[in-house]
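Supplementary Data S3. Sequence and structure tokens for construct A.
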Amino acid sequence: MDQKEVGMRWSGFEGAAPELADAGKSLFTQFGVGLGFLATIRPDGGPRLHPMCPLFAEGGLFGFLIPSPKQRDLQRDGRFAMHSFPPEAVDDEFCITGTARAIEPGPSRDVLVALHTANVEDDHTLFEFDVEGALLARYRFRGDWPPVYSRWSQAGSG
């Protein structure tokens, strides 16, 4: 991966922007299991978007990815965006951007496999998603416009 790793772990983001991190985690986990959309960068530079199941544990934000184009995208270029699923009652949304890195097999991976709700095979790569920026949009009701935005950037927090 050629990109400079500048993001912080989820726990660092929680410390830097606790209300924003709490709201984002709530949106990602609103259905019990973590649900989000993961955007990666294809080899030709275009975007790729897929649903995925983010996992919050051990102070980090993780995801197991099956052998797939998005897994290869992150192995080649770790930049990503992750967006929450919309709630049923209102259009609130949360998005983070940052850099993902593969976690080697070992005790840390074993702990996360045990916490995951789906079968995790040996060929599923575990990634940790570090946060560089976040955006929360809150609406008073479905169809309300404009939302109230809250933004955070690691570049602006130091």
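Construct B, processed identically:
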Amino acid sequence: MTITYGSVPLDEALALSGMEFLSAIRDGRLPHPPIAETAGLRLVTVEPGFIVWEGEPTPAYFNPLGGIHGGWIATLLDSCMGCAGHTTLAAGIPYTTVDLKVNYVRAVTPKVGVVRAEGKVLHAGRKLLSTEGRLVDANGKLYAHGVSACITLDAQAEKLQ
């Protein structure tokens, strides 16, 4: 499947539940977000409370010492954890990340190959979503892990600003 990239108008995105919206991205009915193109990410799994993004570490993401930049790893983890929380939300409820904690276990290099950022919901409350994420290689070897908190927003108040 060819991946397309672009922004979905907020009203269109909020007309769908989180599961519907993210499934449409995974299936190619909606475009992957622009950050996915920048970071070389692909949404591969969408289940209630669980998401997997894949990415391949390339020299485009090198830090000054030739390793993969921690910001790229954090981007994968933020994406999987936030989207895992999004799967639990009904239509009309936007959210944003308010806290992100990443632990780097070992260096990621291009030799690692494709990595999977697996996000899982720990708690989905009315206002706060708590999630965890793991970055692993094809053999399940752990490279980084993290936790995140997201807060749901009032869609009407956000449109007025």
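Residues 10-160 form a domain with the Thiol Ester Dehydrase; Chain A fold (CATH 3.10.129.10). The beta strands are 41-47, 50-55, 95-104, 115-124, 128-136, 142-152.
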